[in-house]
């Protein structure tokens, strides 16, 4: 840990934290650890439930982990798949956090994430009882925008308008708004254009130093022994993701080059819908189960190209973290999503893949057929992708940006 005459202090507030292995919990845990080793006194206010296993309790209520003080408030085992219970859970957690904060020592900085839903509603309370402190909001997704994107209808629209009024009020108390992409920032600026904005992305959980050779057993298991070019979708297939163009691309290739093989290794509430779209003629499309973290590196490394998707209406509301994980291991991207989204812009700016649209499916299919016979060009794409990640998106780079940003804003 670095030394200084005055140790800056920070409180991180997020729904899930160590030992939970859900991706966002890992990011907050690694941010906490990174700031601790840069000389911060770090406390974390979280809950005592796992994200995917709400029936399981995390103990103890208070512990010291890698220099970080973790405080867990009790949270009822509400089913997060139920929208009404999820909102009730948010209210409960924010009230519990507010009560717990009243007994905690003040901190130079407080960072609040976007889980539970509408977590930003706690900012007026933080300003009232933590005067003079720097309040930061790290936005992984946006509510109520996500609710509107997911469900249409007059009732949903009316509820969103009401919720936006509350969010508009709460955002007035934020000092620094940290987004994870340019489209998200544009949405946030409609609420409050006068505060400090910064883009700090969620880095990849797997960051190899070099591009590793593919594990042949894993490659064969996912794609078969005859595949010459392998294309992988790994991760969640949820409400924000789209797969129609990806299937169309695969079918274009099937008819002229069936040794270019796609594998969807995923889970999520659209996974069954995806499976039903595939028929017996789709011989170049395969499926695999969700990977354990211990197997993730091998799986990500065995494909030549990765797939990332995002529905147009979700641009700026979420940013698929698969993008960062893919280029971290040196994989170029086929992005099935809007060109003007953050990922679309990064791919074009850094030349780390292709943005798939209705108008260029055949063009990208032709490019993939060319790459199948050009292993040297595939290696060049891989090296470029990993170098871009290390320069712009790595954990080391982003945590350094966090440290610089926060130290410059301490009141």
Give me some keywords for this one:
411 residues, 2 domains, Rossmann fold, 8-stranded mixed beta sheet, globular, alpha/beta, 6-stranded parallel beta sheet
Number of strands: 14
Give the count of structural domains: 2
CATH superfamily of the largest domain: Glycogen Phosphorylase B
Using the coordinates above, name the CATH class of the largest domain: Alpha Beta
Structural class: alpha/beta
Strand and helix order: EHEEEHEHEHHEHEHEHEHEHEHEHEHHH
CATH T-level fold name of the largest domain: Rossmann fold
- Major β-sheet profile: 8 strands, mixed
Please estimate the helix content: 40-55%
Spans of 5+ residues with little confidence (pLDDT < 50)? Answer: none
Mean pLDDT level = 92
Query: Treating each run of at least 4 consecutive H or I residues as one helix, how many helices?
Result: 15
Q: Judging by the overall fold, what is the CATH architecture of the largest domain? A: 3-Layer(aba) Sandwich
Radius of gyration computed on alpha carbons: 22 Å
* Major sheet strand order: 3-4-2-1-5-6-7-8
Shape: globular
Question: How much strand content do the residues show?
Answer: 15-25%
